[in-house]
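ligand=TLP
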Amino acid sequence: MEKFSDFRSDTVTRPTEEMRRAMFEAQVGDDVLGDDPTVQKLEELAASIMGKEAALFVPSGTMGNSIAVKMWTRELEEVIVEEKSHIYNMESTHMTFISRVTPRPLPSKRGALDPELIRKHVRLPSVHTPRTSLICLENTHNNWGGAVVPLETFQEIRKVANEYGLKVHLDGARIFNASIAFGVPVKEYAKYCDSVMFCLSKGLSSPVGSMLVSDRQTIDYARRLRKALGGGMRQVGVLAACGIISLTKMVDRLKDDHVRAKKLAEAIHDLPGISLNPEEVETNIIIFYFNHPRLTIHELLGKLKEKGVLALGVFGGVRLVTHKDVDDEDVERAIKAFREILA
Ligand code: TLP
């Protein structure tokens, strides 16, 4: 079978050999009963890396975000979100479905919400309108091509949140990419947030799993919500063992993904039909808009696939993501394929 160069997502990363061995050797117990020592170790490690009191291992980023919205809101409330955010656009509307709150999408500058715009949209309790109770941030920002939201934005938004008694949740699915790209410890971002969700299953290469971190009392409640949503997992130390490797061994190498994304972006940005500024590629995601006289996005994706290169169509554009399982040869193959198709 032909090996594809798979740039669709960093979710496609396969577990490393070390992870497979760790799965085999993991000590396990029933985690719903609090008996799994490997999960406990992972949760302690995640909390300490993020500078929070406690952490919860959840099956997916979507469940982590769903629990976070549920734990910080009640019915008749509203949540401020960025208009292209994953939590608003790509998580099957759990805000309305599970938490029964209204999202209030606001525009941003490459994923960074303007604190003053948030201030203007905070709704105070009224008989007519929902009360704003939560602000959701995302870093790196997936649909803004992996853009890094600056730390100052977090600091300023925290001030607005404090003024109005709002909670701040961070969808940090790729927070380690932000940290590596800008040299800011993840704790620094987390400091300005009441809770953070981050994924082990993306660039950090675990097969499954995300973490939700916050204060201990909130995480105790989150644990009940996880059970209610069907996310209580039993001998899940086999997966937590991979998560520990993700956090201790897989973070530093993210910089290689960033270098490869930049290289790919620089090589294809001026090809006919592609609209992309390579300077805006800060981490491992490239999103470009495509407008070509002969080819639709769908046809471009098909032709790339014929040449062994997989990319994803998103929001009227094309997404390419670098990760552990695409190397320099895959990048060269992609560049060659783009040139042959478009030049
Ligand atoms: N994103 C996936 C797809 O859903 C598009 C991807 O391939 O990028 N927050 C952010 C910022 C994400 O990018 C994702 C996954 C999630 C949350 C949800 O994580 P999972 O897939 O574990 O539920």
